[in-house]
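PROTEIN DESIGN WORKSHEET
SECTION A - STRUCTURE
LENGTH: 272
TOKENS:
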């Protein structure tokens, strides 16, 4: 049963990481439902999702790395990601502990974030300016920085890192697929940095909180969760882009509002 739950949580992570619905919130809710609230497991399996998107964009990554010394496009692409990445690093360094100790396990905040994020998504879809950037790789530095500032909002659990960056991209006049693809690119350095930060925090807190931060899963179960996160993210990324081209983000907005409302009702009824 522990292996089955680890696999299910891995699938939840992989399926929701790049959708604008908050993978962290889904993992926290699923973990509470299953009775497996494990911060180590949650952090360790997330790189599986990052590895999936890196595999899908491996040609682009190799091209950029190889071209950094002399290729202006590769240099511009790197500067674009740095401009979007830096705000999350700065704010995360100052607010990370507060988020982890105060906000992270507040299901009330998660529920409100779900609903508020869905409403904002509907408003952005309806009232945003006409997009003039159709290629994520051509995003101007000033707009990349704006998207990075929006990503900071994802420090609040339930907001969704991908949701914040996608909506930020749309507000910066990227079209829907370009905003989603920018979010994929930005996920690579952001989630890698978040993983390193969390691991350092766990190491710093041990041995004082060794029992509290220890994993309830074995190494094999964690490995299974990692693999399932990788495989499920690998499956969802490309179809997500195709779906967005056809239907936009309105279905995700209503999903967020529905889940947030159900969670608020559950909390009002005394759960968990």
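SECTION B - SEQUENCE
RESIDUE ASSIGNMENT:
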């Amino acid at each position: 049963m522990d292996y089955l739950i680890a696999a299910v949580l891995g699938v939840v992570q992989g399926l929701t990481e790049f959708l604008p619905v908050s993978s962290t919130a889904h993992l926290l809710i699923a973990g509470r439902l299953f009775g497996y609230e494990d911060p180590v497991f949650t952090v360790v399996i997330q790189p599986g999702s990052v590895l999936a998107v890196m595999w899908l964009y491996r040609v682009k990554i190799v091209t950029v790395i190889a071209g950094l010394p002399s290729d202006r496009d590769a240099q511009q692409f790197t500067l674009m990601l740095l401009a979007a990445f830096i705000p999350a690093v700065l704010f995360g360094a100052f607010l990370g502990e507060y988020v982890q100790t105060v906000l992270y396990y507040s299901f009330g905040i998660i529920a409100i974030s779900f609903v508020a994020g869905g409403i904002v998504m509907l408003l952005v879809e309806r009232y945003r300016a006409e997009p003039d950037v159709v290629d994520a790789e051509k995003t101007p530095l000033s707009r990349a920085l704006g998207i990075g500032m929006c990503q900071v909002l994802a420090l609040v659990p339930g907001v969704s890192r991908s949701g914040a960056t996608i909506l930020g991209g749309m507000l910066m006049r990227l079209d829907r697929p370009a905003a989603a693809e920018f979010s994929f690119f930005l996920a690579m350095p952001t989630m890698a940095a978040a993983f390193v930060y969390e691991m350092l925090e766990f190491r710093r807190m041990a041995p004082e909180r060794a029992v509290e931060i220890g994993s309830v899963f074995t190494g094999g179960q964690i490995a299974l969760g990692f693999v399932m996160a990788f495989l499920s993210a690998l499956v969802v990324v490309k179809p997500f882009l195709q779906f967005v081209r056809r239907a936009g983000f309105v279905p995700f907005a209503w999903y967020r509002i529905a889940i947030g409302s159900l969670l608020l009702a559950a909390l009002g009824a005394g759960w968990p």
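SECTION C - NOTES
Residues 209-213 have pLDDT under 50 and may be disordered.
The CA atoms of residues 124 and 167 lie 7 Å apart.
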